Amino acid sequence: MTEPTNRKQAEGGPLQDDDAPFYTIGQVSALLGIPPAALRRLDDQDIVSPERSDGGQRRYSRLEVEQLREVLDLTDEGVTLAGVRKVLALRRRVESLEDELAGLRGRDEQQTSSA
DNA sequence: ATTCTCACA
DNA sequence: TGTGAGAA
């Protein structure tokens, strides 16, 4: 294996490895090449809001860093923060609809196979 | 040394 | 969006 396969399989919630490692705002800003102030803006605008630890400092997870990359792609293309928020809302909407569809599909398979 | 909030241009 | 003051 060339990659650290430490991925959990069946976890009972949003408590995965991608949510565990927390980066400081400084690390993330260096990693993404954007000023800390920009990260704080994103948090204030409810686009990517990291958890806070002890003294109220932002702690970014891997997942949030990835979300940040997506946001940067959009803003680089000229999408405003308000627009990004809408894109994110639509993205969540699609996910929930996909889940709902998966559920309906499962129910339908029961009927179809017993018909 | 870092990060936080708030304010200003 | 970037910068700086002042506190933690």
From TrEMBL:
Keywords: DNA-binding. Residues 1-21 are annotated as: Disordered. Residues 22-90 form the HTH merR-type domain. It comes from the Bacteria. PROSITE patterns: HTH_MERR_2. One of its GO terms (molecular function) is DNA binding. Residues 1-10 have a biased composition (Basic and acidic residues). Pfam families: MerR_1. SUPFAM superfamilies: Putative DNA-binding domain. This is MerR family transcriptional regulator.
